[in-house]
Amino acid sequence: MLKIYGRATSYNVQKVMWLVAELGLPHQRIDVGGKFGGLDTPEFLAMNPNGKIPVIDDGGVIVWESNAIVRYLAAKYSLGQWCPADAGQRAQADQWMTWASGELHAGVIGVFWNFFRTKEANRDWALIRTCEQKCVTEYALLERRLTSQPHLSGDHLTMGDIPAAGTLYRYFTMDIQRPNLPNVEAWYQRLSQRPAYREHVMVPYAELKDTL
Amino acid sequence: MLKVLGQPASINVRKVLWACDEIGIAYEREDWGGATRPTSDPAFLALNPNGLVPVVIDDGLVLRESNTIIRYLANKHGRDDLLPQSAATRAQVEMWMDWQATEFNSSWRYAVQALVRKNPNFQDSDQIDASIKSWAKHVQILDRQLATTGAFVAGSEFSAADIPMGLSVNRWFMTPLDHPTFEAVAAYYERLSHRPAFMKHGRNGVA
Fold this sequence. Notes:
Number of helices of chain B: 8
Number of domains of chain B: 2
Low-confidence stretches of chain A: none
Number of strands of chain B: 4
Oligomer: heterodimer
Largest sheet of chain B: 4 strands, mixed
Strand order of the largest sheet of chain A: 2-1-3-4
CATH architecture of the largest domain in chain A: Up-down Bundle
Number of domains of chain A: 2
Helix content of chain A: 40-55%
Largest interface: A-B, 29 and 30 residues
């Protein structure tokens, strides 16, 4: 059975769990990372030398790096749907994933770690403001993309939507300043109608506050 | 013909040029970014709203993000040796590419700004030391992986993952710092140097 290593409150684990649930794959999730620890054991490092979650073990196939896992699961279990079959469409989905993990992630997960997770006394406000500004820039790009289509990938969700869509619960529920983003908000509302998104992405994160 | 937009000193543009030569794709390149044409030009922003190079245009398809472009080119040209069709073996290549783009690349950012670009905004000695330390820790992870495979990052054969990794290793050796010894990484650098496309676009005197 597919095993997923990683705590449910990790954004990177959530991307994988959301897709696993959308695909209806039988699975077992094992809590590691954060308060559960277990990332520096020889057994874990033998799976992922980088010592980070998520990691999957799919019948002996070990994959780490959340986007690589999402692409693997989509290609193996949903070629033609969650992973577009056409080379060009597949590359565009891949591109949105890479963009979300670099640019969008630097903004929103930057705010999450440096503001929400960091104790007030330790906060670097210049850094937090830089991350907030990065959010403004990058979500504006999403806003424009969603003007003409319901999802980043077009009419249907694909793997290309997962990393960006996975940030929305945190972005819209953190106590921060946000610009007006009607298309992105409407997208978030549509996604929150999906049981898999609600269960695996809209995971309360209050326990992570002030832990750094 | 494939069009590659981006100036050739950019590490991310060099990844794409190396991939093109490795696969044997003819391309024309247009200078954008760096000391050439600014990517803030509306014509460029229309192609990549992030204003980052490289961008490629392939028969009307516009793509950005260097690792995505490498995967696209290998996939489109049926280069199973660079990017296997089998999901399981392909994932072994892709996870190292993602690791390069996220973890590895983040580790050297401050040190490269300070020591290679000589950027006056990146001259805090504590932060330079922290970046070098983190960078070395990541090179060590790569070193262990290469010691295990005995050859290339995803196994015994050259794959698409060696393109971003080869450029990263070149950057490591080209940056003026006190390099700890990593034997498997040093051997890998020499192994890659047998490839003309790496010598042209990777180990070409640029960090």
